[in-house]
């Protein structure tokens, strides 16, 4: 068993729980998510990079508590995961799709 120094195991579980929760939110209730349309139209990289920058810049600026600030970090990781997916689509990494 690996003893993680930086709580990676707990953080990865938290990220998965967050992502799972986004699939039940209002913007994913329809058959096609807006993000799918953005990716299909060839704008996935720019959109994801833009949202990563947006959430990174507002870190500690929106909300009054460390828990609220932490949510922006989780969103950065989520958009980075989506960006990895877009990368794999664009570079035909079948192993990851």
For the residues shown, what is the average pLDDT?
93
Order of helices and strands: HHHH
User: Span between N and C termini?
Assistant: 28 Å
Number of helices, where a helix is a run of at least 4 consecutive DSSP H or I residues: 4
Q: Sheet with the most strands? A: none
Oligomer: single chain
Structural class: mainly alpha
Work out the number of β strands. Answer: 0
- What fraction, in percent, of the residue positions are helical? 55-70%
| Rg over CA atoms | 15 Å
Spans of at least 5 consecutive residues whose pLDDT stays below 50 are none
Strand portion: under 5%
Judging from the principal axes of the Cα atoms, what is the shape? globular
Q: How are the elements arranged and paired?
A:
Layout (H helix, E strand, L loop, with lengths): L7 H15 L11 H7 L3 H14 L8 H25 L7
Helix pairs in contact: 3-4
Tags for this model:
97 residues; 4 helices; 63% helix; mainly alpha
Provide a short characterization of the protein structure.
The chain has 97 residues and is mostly helical. The protein is 63% helix and 0% strand.
Question: In words, what does this structure look like?
Answer:
By secondary structure, this protein is mainly alpha-helical. Helices cover 63% and strands 0% of the residues. α3 packs antiparallel against α4.
